[in-house]
Amino acid sequence: xxxxxxxxxxxxxxxxxxxxxxxxxxxxxxxxxxxxxxxxxxxxxxxxxxxxxxxxxxxxxxxxxxxxxxxxxxxxxxxxxxxxxxxxxxxxxxxxxxxxxxxxxxxxxxxxxxxxxxxxxxxxxxxxxx
Length: 130
Ligand code: THU
Fold this sequence. Notes:
The structure is a single chain. The protein is an alpha+beta fold. It has helices at about 5-10, 55-65, 85-95, 115-120; strands spanning about 25-30, 35-40, 70-75, 100-105, 110-115. Strands 2-1-3-4-5 form a five-stranded mixed sheet. The chain is globular, with a radius of gyration of 14 Å.
């Protein structure tokens, strides 16, 4: 699958987002090393802190299906700027490898490719614990 196609997969998730509070839909598509694409959307909650981001939705879907190794992640929000993964998502993704390629897209479909290592330098991970 091309980068562009993975970004398009993320776009298809915008409609699924549950965003009655922020009105800011986010879609994600996480490519497993098994070749499966795990999609996600943000799911908000009246107790705001219980909101789940699109990237973590996709990640948790993958882990719960038995996939723990990933190659690329596409994320898109309804924004003029690229939709960068938040800090909590960066950290949770990093657990499963810092060399993940992240495709951060804007609402026009333009995107930039950047590694998770660049997004979260000097990170704390399972190796740190020894
Ligand atoms: N959001 C994501 O889904 N992913 C991110 O990486 C950043 C933020 C969501 C959370 C909330 O539903 C909305 O965007 C506004 O913060």
